[in-house]
Amino acid sequence: MKRCMIVDDSSVIRKVAKRILGGPEMLVIEAGSGTEALYMCEADMPHVIIVDGSLPDMNTVDFIRQALAIQGEVKPQIVICVTEFDVGAIMRAKRAGAVGYILKPFNRPQLLDRFRAMDLAA
């Protein structure tokens, strides 16, 4: 079973994403901050991380670099979640190691289509 972590300070965004992605093929866990997410990653790295483009406690690019630097069996695929199409922010995230982006707010078809396009979910 794949594991997905949603990192966002909005509990609504986390709950919506968890409801959409959670199921028999994917376990979804939540973190409200970058620091909390990094501690969780050190304990048990998820396969996929969806991270808010504007974390309350750290720069998202720094989070991506730190998460990818954690040694372990799993190297996560990281997706940045942004509220507007900001080419600069998306490119900085990709240079840091993110595999793609998702625009907020999202709905079920948009999120699932994006995951399928990136080969993250069936």
Detailed description of the structure:
- This protein has 122 residues and is an alpha/beta fold.
- The chain contains 5 helices and 5 strands; from the N terminus they run βαβαβαβαβα.
- Helix 2 (34-43) packs parallel to helix 3.
Task: Please sum up the structure shown.
The protein is α/β, with parallel strands linked by helices.
Distance between the termini: 12 Å
Main β sheet profile = 5 strands, parallel
Q: How many helices in DSSP terms?
A: 5
The level of helicity is 40-55%
Major sheet: arrangement of strands = 2-1-3-4-5
Q: What sort of overall outline do the alpha carbons produce when their principal axes are compared?
A: globular
β-strand number: 5
Low-confidence stretches: none
Return the average pLDDT rounded to an integer. 93
In what range is the share of β-strand residues? 15-25%
Chart the SSEs and their pairings.
Layout: E1 2-7, H1 11-21, E2 26-31, H2 34-43, E3 48-52, H3 60-69, E4 77-82, H4 87-96, E5 100-103, H5 108-117
Parallel strand pairs: 1-2, 1-3, 3-4, 4-5
What key phrases describe this protein's structure?
122 residues, globular, 5 strands, alpha/beta
